[in-house]
Design goal:
By secondary structure, the protein is of the alpha+beta class. The strands form five sheets. A four-stranded antiparallel sheet has the order 6-5-9-8.
Length: about 375
């Protein structure tokens, strides 16, 4: 039986007393123990572990011959760069151990406390306390940043052993850059001036509000027909638009769903619980810059058809909601016709009554 205990207002998983309940059954995937509202850690680590290429790189990582400062070393004896490098290498060491346990452990779940504690110290600052419900996107960015730096240190040592000079041209050899980093180009017009901006990303953010599927979210985020002008002068402000195209999609594409927005009336952030669907297989060719000409023409056609559909729906609404009443205009016509037919039938009945001749004895 799974039990949970409450300690200092956060949840901790309590191991079952029966050892058989802790034993892994066959090749069942190994879980991660919740050591205090660490679902954010488990979700990201398990996702990365189940990607074969990522799992291979982590398990085959060779620790560089750099002195790792123990976590017990006083921070006053470490420089900022040494402390960061030490944390990264300690984390990589513990992450390799954790991945190995997820592969070979005989238990249903393993304890990730050591890498979690290292990350906790990285997120904690002098002015804020670590949140046990750390935001998944923030953790993902920090994790990829550390992995990139860890593999960069490994590459530097390899080049030094081979007698090669350091160079930024070798950045693409970094497995994190190669697997997770994508590039996009944003083009648009603002106040009559064209602009172009190129950027790289590890996760692409999309808005959820007002959309029901992932393709709709991506279209809304990549194509904005009207954006806020840079100028604050409302008298000279003109409509602006922009489009974003992917110039390079990473083999592992991370899409960040923005499910929080600020509620102006209540002055607080609230979560969006709208249902969002996505296909098991997504074709991203419509978002690539190499298909820009063809896709732009198709988008314009779709835009015109949707505009025409909106006009027809408004016209239909005037028929189905006559004078803001939830009465269809067709029903109004039917009722009016029925009333007119009833009046005519009554008039004809009256005329027939006038034509009836009374019997002779009554005359």
């Amino acid at each position: 039986m799974v039990q949970r205990g409450r300690i200092d207002s956060w949840m901790v998983f309590i191991d079952p007393l029966n050892p058989h309940e802790r034993t892994r059954l066959g090749d069942t995937p190994v879980g991660l123990k919740n050591v205090g509202n660490t679902c954010w850690f488990s979700a990201v680590i398990q996702s990365l572990f189940h990607l074969p290429i990522v799992r291979k790189h982590i398990l085959s990582y060779n620790m560089p011959a750099v002195s790792i400062i123990s976590s017990d070393t006083p921070q006053c004896d470490q420089t900022g760069e040494q402390q960061t490098s030490s944390q990264i290498l300690l984390f990589m060491q513990e992450l390799r151990v954790l991945f190995s346990l997820l592969v070979q452990s005989k238990r249903k779940y393993v304890n990730p406390s050591k890498p979690v504690e290292i990350l906790k110290s990285a997120f904690t600052t002098s002015s804020s306390q670590f949140s046990y419900q750390q935001d998944v996107s923030e953790f993902t960015h920090k994790l990829l940043e550390w992995l990139q730096q860890a593999f960069a240190m490994q590459q530097v040592e390899g080049r030094q052993e081979d007698g090669e000079a350091d160079g930024s041209d070798r950045e693409e050899e970094n497995p994190v850059v190669r697997l997770f980093y994508g590039k996009c180009r944003t083009e648009g017009v603002n106040e009559g001036n064209r602009f172009t901006n190129e950027s790289s990303f590890t996760s692409f953010p999309v808005q959820v509000r007002g959309h029901h599927d992932l393709h709709s979210c991506l279209e809304a985020s990549l194509v904005q027909r009207e954006i806020e002008p840079v100028s604050n002068n409302e008298t000279t402000a003109v409509k602006a638009e922009q489009e974003t195209w992917f110039t390079r999609l990473p083999p592992i594409l991370s899409i960040e769903l923005s499910r929080f927005e600020f509620n102006q009336s209540e002055q607080k952030a609230e979560k969006i619980h709208d249902r969002l669907t996505f296909p098991c297989t997504m074709y991203m060719d419509r978002y690539l810059e190499c298909n820009k000409e063809d896709v732009s023409a198709r988008r314009e056609t779709v835009y015109k058809l949707r505009h025409k559909l909106d006009v027809l729906e408004r016209q239909l609404d005037r028929f189905t909601s006559y004078k803001s009443k939830r009465v269809a205009l067709q029903d109004v016509f039917d009722l009016a016709l029925g009333f007119a037919q009833t009046k005519r039938m009554r008039a004809e009945d009256c005329e027939r009554d006038d034509d009836i001749q009374l019997p002779l004895r009554m005359q």
